[in-house]
Amino acid sequence: MSTASMFSVKQLVESGFCAKSMPSKYVFPRSDDNSVVHYIPDEAKVIPTIDFSLLTSGNPDQRSKVISDLGNACREWGFFMLINHGVSQDLMDEVIKVSEDFFDLKEEDKRDYAGKTLFDPIRWGTSFNVSVDKTLFWRDYLKIHVHPQFNAPKKPVEFSETLREYCERSRKVASELLKGISESLGLGKNYINKKMKIESGLSHQLLVINLYPPCPEPDVAMGLPPHTDHGLLTLLMQNQLCGLQVLHDSRWVPVNPLPYSFLVISGDHMEILTNGKYKSVVHRALVNNNATRISVGTGHGPSLDTIVSPVEELVNWEGDDRDCDRDRDLPAYRGIRYREYMELQQSNQLNGNSCLDHVRIL
């Protein structure tokens, strides 16, 4: 079934059709791994927090400490909260506002962008991929390829200018984070950015805006199931409603971010690039029955034609003879073109970090 022939979740809610009970196509079986009750949340764990200002303008001791903290967060969590990042609160508020305005457009205006292919500049839809989803997710989305070529819907009129500024600012933040992550690996400040051509003007940035309307039965539905992100890093912000959870030590940890912070998610290509030293984090989005949650993510990766494989310096051999039987750290992943990996993820159901299994060397 094409996206264009389906109701959006927002339209479904506003029609009153699901005011008292859930349509069966959105109900996950209790035995399903995606069930909300499948894992017990762990409220006690403390999510790492990184102060961006100390990374960019701190003294040498402060910078050394935050780089160490950054490495620990990537190694142990694949996730952290970023504060003092320099993106203004006014701009972040405006992005949320224009996102709401887009989803408030008439259905026919939004459907101008519906039912398109993965690499079309702008794509509006519902669930994840309705052609492969066995059960639909309680989520509408807008996906825009914003770099190296910037795109934006024509409506609302202020959307384009606001998104352009926000995407430029988030690219700068991501670039600085990658410098710190590169240093934490002992690779040198600019190693990852040069290897992935992040500052060449050809790197890829995808903006994803998620809308999770109020759900009449949040215990049986899912906003997004457990999954990992493609790319190197995702920078995520949201309105003041929580719903994100990350998987840490086999327990779901609810994320309650500080206002105007970024949530930084390590992606599959960070795991591939570091040969598994830094993991991509499994996360999911829950829904609520009170209000609409909006999240805005910018995914940062190399150019679509870049082949990402483990960095040689992180594939450590013991001894001089590579054909000997001594202990050695072999490449854990085969190289894959970034474009092909995105196609692979889009054509399969979201299921934890299963997409990595296609490139993992057993």
| CATH H-level superfamily | B-lactam Antibiotic, Isopenicillin N Synthase, Chain
Q: What is the end-to-end distance?
A: 36 Å
The top-level CATH class is: Mainly Beta
Low-confidence stretches: 1-5, 317-327
Number of domains: 1
Mean pLDDT: 89
Inertia-based shape: globular
What would you report as the Rg, rounded to the nearest angstrom?
20 Å
Helix content: 25-40%
| Largest sheet report | 8 strands, mixed
Question: Can you give a write-up of this model?
Answer:
Residues 202-302 form the Fe2OG dioxygenase domain. Belongs to the iron/ascorbate-dependent oxidoreductase family. Keywords: Cytoplasm, Dioxygenase, Iron, Metal-binding, Nucleus, Oxidoreductase, Vitamin C. Pfam families: 2OG-FeII_Oxy, DIOX_N. Mean pLDDT is 89; it is low at 1-5 and 317-327. 26% of the residues lie in helices and 19% in strands. The radius of gyration is 20 Å and the shape is globular. The strands form 3 sheets. Strands 1-2-10-7-12-5-4-3 form an 8-stranded mixed sheet. A 4-stranded antiparallel sheet has the order 6-11-8-9, with no helix packed on it. The two termini are 36 Å apart. It contains 9 helices and 14 strands. The chain has one domain (7-358): Sandwich (Jelly Rolls), CATH 2.60.120. A hairpin with a 2-residue loop joins β8 (244-248) and β9 (251-254). It has helices at residues 9-14, 52-57, 60-76, 89-103, 107-110, 159-184, 191-195, 268-273, 338-346, and strands spanning 49-51, 79-83, 122-126, 140-147, 204-212, 224-227, 233-238, 244-248, 251-254, 262-266, 283-285, 293-301, 307-308, 336-337.
